[in-house]
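Lab meeting, item 3. Inverse folding demo.
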């Protein structure tokens, strides 16, 4: 079945990850991600999202780790050069110091460049991060307009459908199971969410007729 695309949004995130988001029928998000030659596509039902998002800082740990390894390598070379070339080590020590410093500074710069602030939308009941947006990308105006529209639509759907707790829990669990199979979230996150949602099932009233998961459509 063809879907109507009611909103589009695109960003370039950490390490060149491209993310394209389409709002289908004002009901579900279709997300396409591309990094190097790897691509994946998945969908998220807006009814399973919490409208209250969080702001977090995403650290690019790979470059910080690389700078630490480079610095360790420079220290090892210092020791080896002084031990094996005690009479002619000064020139090599200077060269090692310069090259090591440049590499370390470069990696620290990349760590700073690719670390960023994110706006994170969580699942409504299990609090699993499902949508991560780079704040003020591609521009502050476009970013704020998209977030405002998204929050508005999540709130409208919640008010219009008036789902019972059981319907909300079952729909969220189905979606998280699908996202786990597609490796969008980890198996550990799904197991944690499953335990959390099953616990709430026991506390909620008897289930109503389940609502179809439009994100699977």
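The presenter then showed the designed sequence:
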């Amino acid at each position: 079945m063809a879907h109507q695309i009611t909103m589009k949004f695109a960003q370039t995130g950490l390490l060149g990850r491209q993310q394209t988001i389409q709002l289908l029928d004002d009901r579900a998000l279709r997300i396409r991600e591309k990094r190097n030659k790897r691509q994946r596509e998945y969908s998220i039902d807006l009814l399973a999202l919490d409208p209250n998002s969080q702001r977090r800082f995403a650290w690019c740990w790979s470059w910080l780790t690389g700078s630490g390894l480079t610095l360790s390598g420079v220290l090892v070379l210092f020791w080896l050069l002084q031990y094996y070339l005690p009479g002619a080590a000064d020139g090599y020590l200077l060269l090692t110091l310069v090259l090591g410093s440049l590499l370390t500074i470069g990696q620290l710069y990349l760590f700073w460049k690719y670390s960023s602030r994110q706006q994170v939308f969580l699942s409504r009941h299990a609090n699993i991060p499902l949508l991560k947006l780079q704040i003020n990308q591609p521009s502050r105006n476009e970013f704020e307009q998209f977030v405002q529209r998204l929050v508005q639509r999540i709130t409208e759907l919640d008010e219009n459908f008036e789902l019972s707790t059981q319907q909300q829990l079952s729909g969220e669990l189905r979606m998280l199971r699908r996202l786990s199979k597609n490796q969008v979230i980890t198996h550990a996150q799904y197991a944690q969410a499953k335990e959390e949602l099953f616990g709430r099932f026991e506390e909620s009233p008897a289930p109503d007729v389940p609502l179809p998961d439009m994100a699977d459509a």
